[in-house]
Amino acid sequence: MKLISVLLSVLIHLSFVLIYLVIVHDKPIISKKNQNVYNVQLISIKHKSAKKKIIRSKPKKTVTKHKDIHRKIHKKTAIKHKKRENKKYVNIKKKIAELKKKAKIAEKKQMKEKVLREEKIRQKLIEHRIEAMKNEIAEKENEEKTKIAVANYSGVINNIIKNNWGVEKGIIKNKQFITKVDIKIDYKGNIIYSAIEKGSGNKYVDTTAVSAINKSNPLPRPPKDILDSGYVEFIITFDTREKE
Amino acid sequence: MKKIIVLFVLFLIYLNLSAEAKVFQITIDNPNYKPIGIGLWGFQSKDKSSALILKSTIERDLRMSGFFYVDKTQHFSYDAPFSVVCGLSKIDNLDYAVYGNLIVENNDSIYANIKLVNSANKTLMFNGSFYSNKESLKWLGHRVSDKIIEYITGVYGPFESKIIFARGKGKIRDIYACDFNGENIERLTKWHTMNILPKWIDKYEISFLSYKYGKPSLFLFNIRTGKIRKLFSNSNLSISAVKYKNNFAVPFSKNGDVDIYEVNRNGRIIKNFTHNYGIDVSPNFTSDYSKMVFVSNRTSSPQIYVKDLSSAFESSIRLTFNGKYNSSPALSPNNRKIAYISIEKGKTALKIMNIDGSEDKTVMTGYNLDSPSWSYDSRYVAIEAEMGGVRGIYIVNTLNNKYFLAMGGNGMYNGLSVSGRFR
Question: N or C: which end of chain A has fewer CB within 10 A?
């Protein structure tokens, strides 16, 4: 009798140990709630179903007179446990759904924000491009203006200097001599600087070029558009070649 | 210290800005023709007549060069600063100005200090002294002129040379010598016969044809020593002798037709340069005696030919094809150009072509053009001509075709020759 009672107590203890083990084994599943929802749930469900089988199979093996009581107790605990598990499962599902909803909402929000941001960037880009184009057009217009001003002024001073440039052609014969003279003209048209940048190799021809520059001083006032720091610089090429 | 640093930084910024300034380009071509304006403002001297002679010689030379117009107006004191001289010449629209002073010592020795100013560049191009005796004052003037021409045009002037020429009336012609600008005329022969076709043989030796002994004979005359020597009298032609190495080239008729022969100083024939049945005359040699330019009528009319003397075979090439009568060729001292006379429609023309016959151009047209002779700088030709009714010797600038009368006068001219440079 004593032996039976001892055995019963051992069994009871074992069952408690088992329950305890089951509970302890489940704990990590619950503790993983905060982690990735999908992974936790799927693993725990599979694991429990496997445990259920084990739990069911175990009472079959222990067929005794006290088995019924134990089964009842076990059933009750199992049911309770199932209910709890179900509740937990439902809660988790709900939470997952909520989280999914939240995620979807967040995603939608993010998408909307993205779209808005992109829109803004696009608008900014377009604005930037328009401004750049405007600047380009303005620059081109300015360049055109300067070009026209330079062309007009160059034509004027070309005529003046050319009229003052004379060469005794007997000395140069049919040879080509090129003299480059660097001149700076101030806003009043005065030649404030002149120097031979590249001589022709013939002193006489170089002298005629310098003489032509000197005789042309002062020149007409240069247009403001072409002035840089109050003066404009020209390199005048004197070419003795006679072009048709 | 801070101020200095700030100023330095500002200066650097200024430099940077100035470096970035735009530079525009202009090209001017087809220059106008303009003679060189030169102010000849005289020479300060106690001996005013000498100063005037020097000034007039330089003026004559510069005008005759054909490159300059000469302004003689004197605006300034000789002691005026250099900048004032430059400014004045600029006002007068002159490119250059020449001035200086003349010192006469013992009424014989002359020192001329000459300054050449470039008014465009405001530079003193030349500041040098020349020395001479009073007798050679005009020659000193030629030296100054040649120096000025060299400084401005890049080539030494032609005026330190002499022209010998034959001039006279009726049956009397004599040989004369004058400076290249026609001054200082000296009579070399006084034989009252026909003395014509003078040629410079050497620095002090000339040859000419004379009828002194009735028959035409070639003579050699040393103008320094006055020695005269008969060279050759086997020709009945009016010909002249030209130098060929240490001997002479003389055209004459030996076997019926006229060929050009080499003759030594004793009148002995060494060899003949041409072997043609036509008349070959007027030989001219390049300075290395490798080529001979001459006139031949082998193709019916007188034309100019060139012969390569280094070839053993007959290698004459005809150079002239325009005009029926082309004669009197003269080779330039640089061996590049041939000046010759072409007769077209009753008028004579001075023409110039390259030694290969290319770039044939007319330089001067007039009446009785004859005996062209080059100056030592190969830019001028002295020629007998009658221009605008004035007969005489003209100096032609072959670069711009301008010509000037060097010496005119009544009488006939029969040949001239220009010497090399007398130093």
Answer: C
Task: Count other Cβ atoms within 10 Å, centred on residue B232.
Answer: 25
Distance CA B393, CA B418 (A): 11
Tokens representing A244 are 């048709």
User: What's the one-letter identity of residue B292?
Assistant: M
C-alpha to C-alpha distance for B295 and B224, rounded to whole angstroms: 32
Domains of chain B and CATH, by start: 36-152 (3.40.50.10070), 162-418 (2.120.10.30)
Segments making up each domain of chain A, as ranges: 2-111, 164-239
Residue B145 corresponds to which amino acid?
S
CB pairs under 8 A between A and B: 111
- What would the pLDDT profile of A81-129 be if each residue is shown by its tens digit? 888 888 888 888 888 999 999 999 999 999 999 999 999 999 999 999 9
List the Cα angle B167/B212/B163 in 5-degree steps. 30
A228 touches chain B (CB under 8 A): yes
Alpha carbon distance B43, B56 (integer Å): 11
Q: Any CB–CB contact under 8 A between A241 and chain B?
A: yes
Closest CA relative to residue B206, chosen from B216, B221, B191, B196: B221
User: Which ipTM was obtained for this model?
Assistant: 0.71
- Rounded Cα distance between B291 and B284, Å, is 8
Q: Please name the fold of domain A164-239.
A: 3.30.1150
Residues B127 and B113: their CA atoms lie apart, in Å, by 7
Q: A166, B31 in Cβ contact below 8 A?
A: yes
